[in-house]
Known about the structure:
- The protein has helices at residues 19-36, 60-70, 82-85, 90-103, 119-152, 182-193, 198-207, 220-227, 277-290, 342-363, 374-400, 406-429, 438-451, 457-465; strands spanning 3-9, 45-50, 76-78, 106-108, 113-114, 164-169, 172-177, 235-238, 241-244, 255-258, 265-268, 308-310, 317-320, 328-331, 339-341, 468-474, 485-490.
- The two termini are 47 Å apart.
- The chain has three domains: 3-151, 3-Layer(aba) Sandwich (Rossmann fold), CATH 3.40.50; 164-291, Hect, E3 ligase catalytic domain fold (Alpha-Beta Complex); 339-490, no CATH class.
- Residues 246-252, 292-298 and 367-373 have low confidence and may be disordered.
- Helix 4 runs antiparallel to helix 5 (119-152) and helix 6 packs across helix 9.
- Strand 13 and strand 14 (328-331) form a beta hairpin.
- By secondary structure, it is α/β, with parallel strands linked by helices.
- The longest helix has 34 residues, at 119-152.
Amino acid sequence: MRYAEYLRKSRADDQSEPIEVTLARHREALRQCMAKHALVGAPEDVFEEVASGDSLYARPQMLKLLEAVEQGVYDGVLCMDIQRLGRGSMSDQGAILDAFKLSGTKIITPNKVYDLSDENDETYTEFETFLGRQEYKMIKRRLRRGIKATVESGGYIANAPYWYDKTRIGKTPSLKPNPEEAPFVRMIFDLYLSGMGCQRIADRINSLGAKPRRDVQFSRTTIRNILQNPVYTGHIVWDRKTHIRPSRQSGGKHITIYNPQESWTIVDGLHQGIVPQETFEQVQGIFAKRHRSPSFTGVIENPLAGLIVCGNCGHNMQRQADKRGGPMLLCQKRGCIVSSKLHLVEEALISRLREEMNELVQNAGSESPGEDNTAQTLKAIERQIATAKAQDSRLYDLVEQGVYDTDTFLQRHAALSQRIADLEKARTDIRPMEQLDVPKMAERIQEVLDSYFDMDSQQRNELLKSVLEKVIYKKEPGAKPAEFHLTLFLLPIYL
């Protein structure tokens, strides 16, 4: 009999017990289960993870197991109970049970063997998963009420922000200033009030030897977040963000939504403030005058929005207003400050697009490239994709174990997702040229070029996205504003 083993530590387990101790207990219980059901040998595959059962798409090991189950690799899967497989949404539970039912794979637990091809077992399983989902909802409601009560009482339950340490006041989690780091906070606010910008402040703080806890050095973004965080005045802010766990709708990605300020919960914290409230309000007043997000207009002001990717770090380039010489296009990744005037990049992009069109026209009647090395190249790309996906999967384990905070997870997940997307694009591009409708691609680009400069910024953006997947912007540090190179990735049109 071919079988696999699935182990997952969940909220139902003793959270004070080390992960390995919990999983070791489960392994022993499943060894006894094997003896009970007369199973010999060892499981062909073992899938282990520490994750909530809320979202199927937040459990990479479960996704791998289901893929194998759907292919009929195993006769059965060992697990502690049905609810270990998942007790989140009905759609997730349906996907799990359908995979086992359609493949004829049994679910083997210490208490019972479930054969979903049997009507009685199927009904019993559906009932158990329903009860598990209701219990999970109740646990989540209790948890949310507990979190809200803690926040409203002035407690702080998230990761400690810069220059604070976690502590407890009675039984309530709170913060205490770090005596070595707290003076830097006051310095940041004072420097900003003196007229210094966020990037210059970051450079100054870095030069003094200050080190953030989860980054290599302070960046413009880090400084801005500090200056806008009321926690430094002794307040607690909750509901600033809404985190959506990975789902089918999100493409398996963690989504963060920034809530409007009127929906925030702001209370007096139990912790000591570092910055006077008056100073904080003065800083916010300066921010309001200096910065205006294009989102306030509801209109895209950057014709290159969502298209330009920094060739040094892989992050998206962003438009930033500059009263002195027009808007800039720059990378805001910490430690990767490259930029050019927006109009220079736009003009260069249109020029490169015209070159690409001319090349397509020239190649329209050419023979397809040789395929001698196609198979070898595809295998190499597939290996790289598999490696990147494995690395991405491990990120979820690390965030569940508390090794990574949410911000670090999102940054590394975004980088790996971009890596996977680029590799998959490269895999697609290997398709023979005869499968591409080259004349149609050239025609579409010509249409964009003919009407581009008659359009507003938003319309230009839509035109570019109709022919381009992305553009890699490469510029060496210290190079002149116009000294950069653009690599265009055209959207293919296949026959």
